[in-house]
Amino acid sequence: MPLARRRRHDDADGDRGEGEDDVVSERRPVTWAEAAKVSVQCAVVLAVTWAALDQLGERQLPVAAPLVFVLARWFFTGRRHWGAGLAAAVTGSAVLFVLADRLRPRPDRLLADTVATAVGLAVALAVFTLGSRVRRRA
After folding, report:
1. Are 126 and 35 in contact (CB under 8 A)?
2. Which of 40, 57, 78, 108 is least surrounded by Cβ atoms within 10 Å, i.e. has the fewest?
3. Distance, CA of 23 to CA of 36 (rounded, Å)
């Protein structure tokens, strides 16, 4: 599915000027299939990040940092549902922090952070998908 479509921009007299095609961002609700696709992409990024940090022996770096870039790119290239984005960020972050606090006493902190991030990601994508389907009344 294209993230943007071209719209014809007419002058006041109805003539189309040279170079006046505008790219208009589509703001349609997120489908569950699209949310699942993004979830799988993010899970792959999360697994690669975990494997790289594990091989480097680095336990302190944030495993969620690459996911922020993936999700931000997806959001800003056509999914600008600001209310749903805010709700998803708050809810997903809360789940991540609560789970991380509960799982970190375990021996493998990196694995605990990875699991907490994956669960927070799933919750955030579900909240965003539901929130993007809410229609405001004008």
Report:
1. yes
2. 57
3. 27
